Hints:
The structure is a single chain. With 149 residues, this protein is mostly helical. It has one domain (7-144). The chain is built from 8 helices and no strands. It has helices at residues 7-21, 26-36, 41-54, 60-73, 81-88, 98-107, 109-122, 126-144. It is globular. It starts with 6 loop residues before the first helix and ends in a 5-residue tail after the last helix.
Amino acid sequence: MTTTWDRNVVAERVASAAERYGCDNPQQRKQLEFSLLRTDPVEVFFGLLNVFAQTLPEEFAKHQLAGELLYLVKPKPQLTAYEILRAVLPTYEQSIEEIPWYLISEFGEEAFLAALDDLSNELSGRHKQECIRTMRFWSRRYRAKPASE
């Protein structure tokens, strides 16, 4: 059985769940994960990416929940690592480790770091450069993560 959610519904459901229940409600996260696994992966990918694009970094709960779901559901990326990073960097909340972890799991560490290098050379601005440094930090934590996590 599949849901009829499109990317706008995915983004709205995740954002409203974060507003209503916060980002650390395991039952709500499991319900969303269940629904997203039954939704077209293209719509899931763009819907979760839209949560980052449409919200401010200060909206931590929305970013955290979207990041966790992206990492758990792992929809096939519809953009390159570079394009995804370019889309999320302006609003990236730096405590969300799941974005770099998702990208590493889908593209590999070498491609992820190459995309960060390209963006680092291309983008200016303190916030974006801080985000790139933070993503490098999270990439090192991913490598060190025990298999049981």
